[in-house]
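Training component of the fellowship. As part of building independent skills, the fellow (R.M.) carried out the full modelling exercise for a liganded target. The chosen ligand was S-adenosyl-L-homocysteine. The inputs are recorded below so that the supervisory panel can assess the work.
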Amino acid sequence: MDALGDGTKRCCDEDDESPSRKRSKVQVDHNTNVANHYNRLQETGLAARSQSRIFFMRNFNNWMKSVLIGETVEKLRGRRLSVLDLGCGKGGDLLKWRKGGIDHLVCVDIAGVSVEQCRSRYEDMRKRSHRDESMFSAQFITADCTKELLANNLDQPDLKFDICSCQFVYHYSFESEAKADMMLRNACERLKPGGFFIGTTPDAYELVKRLEASDSLSFGNDVYRVTFDGKGNYPLFGCQYHFNLEQVVDVPEFLVYFPLMEHMASRYGMRLVTKQRFSEFYQEKVKLSHHRNLMMKMLSLEEFPGEHSEGPPSEDQDEYRHAREHCDRAGNAGIRLGTLSRSEWEATSIYLVFIFQKMS
Ligand code: SAH
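Fellow's submitted model of the complex:
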């Protein structure tokens, strides 16, 4: 790894249930559990977020999504764009769609509280834009996309999409073939020819590689921990693991074996355009100055040397050893660079970016 890194994902909140109680409930109704989990998450203010050990990783992930969304919108420039945000959460990508100048957005999530927060964020944005004509219209739907056909819930029943964006969501569907297929159908079936299905999801190869290298059923660091139920046997569907971020027990997720997802997507006329690990995507995109400028604006990397890396050697110092070595190699005492802590990088480098395009 170079001195630079990235990061991902969902917010975290208190979870008063023990993992074992949680697991037995999961077997009863996994999807209800997912909805409850995300509904319970509080919206944390910027001040609290900036105290978090994953502050830069979150920003980095946001930058990754901004680049992915921005470049996809750019490919379709000149058309009136309708977008489906599948698993929209609290609307963290609303501003990205606004910047992209789209015309219509449909936001869907299984967690009703999140959908309402997304809706009110959108309403605020609308008010602030003083009813600017260019502000996109939007519809908000609470639905389990692994069980229901979205088309039945659309205000405009014959609406077709130019883009479906599915950020940090698709892995929840790989519990069973029927669920994974329904989510894929919702993502792809209503895409126009030439339209894109884009997203981010954990890389099964990376997860299994780290699991196999571990002495136990678990691996991670202070920032994240992944725990599997077993080793050596990885079913194509329902291969469950638990992902903890910042010590908070998260809901179970499922391995997404990408070649299988690709095969399933081909049934909906989808061709894989790009599949890149976060590290690869980052290294390619950071070369472009407009992406780099956005990265600075979004505080997606921590300045080094900086607050955490100065002073006597400590645990923190180990977290930034890669950056220190990079500076030493450069042989210039005055050099400053952008980085993520080792722990943040290890957490975020699990993920991959995908882009599919609808052929017919
Ligand atoms: N895309 C957002 C949120 C990611 S968190 C972002 O990038 O910030 C994952 C989201 O997936 C949660 O909001 C969760 O409620 C949603 N989700 C999980 N399973 C789902 C399902 N079956 N149908 C719809 N949404 C689902």
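The panel noted the following from the submitted structure. Residues 10, 31, 34-35, 38, 87-89, 92, 109-111, 114, 144-146, 167-169, 172 surround S-adenosyl-L-homocysteine (CB under 6 Å). The chain has 14 helices and 13 strands.
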